[in-house]
Amino acid sequence: MTTLTIPDERIKGVSFDADLLTVELMDGRRISTPLAWYPRFAGATIPELQGWEIIGDGDGLHWEQFDEDLSVEGMLRGFPAAGFRTGVKR
C-alpha cells in the first residue's frame, strides 16, 4: 500500500547571497531563484533584502520597502517577477 504524502510548501526561512534568493520550505526543500528575476531588488543590499515577512498561510513573502510580493508557487514554477527582461530579442 502506498501512502500519499502532500508536501508542505509553506515558507520556513529565507536567505540571500550576491546572486540568489533561497527559500527553505517546511518539508525541507530549498528553492533558489536569481535575484535578477526581481527588478525591484536592483541595487538592494543584503540587509535591505532581509526586511521580508511571510504572508498568507506561509505561501508568500512581502517586502514593504520594495512593495514586492513573491509566491512559493511562482518560484516553484520558475516565474520571474513582472518587468524582468531576459535580454533575448524576439
TrEMBL record:
<dbReference type="Pfam" id="PF10387">
    <property type="entry name" value="DUF2442"/>
</dbReference>
<protein>
    <recommendedName>
        <fullName>DUF2442 domain-containing protein</fullName>
    </recommendedName>
</protein>
<dbReference type="InterPro" id="IPR018841">
    <property type="entry name" value="DUF2442"/>
</dbReference>
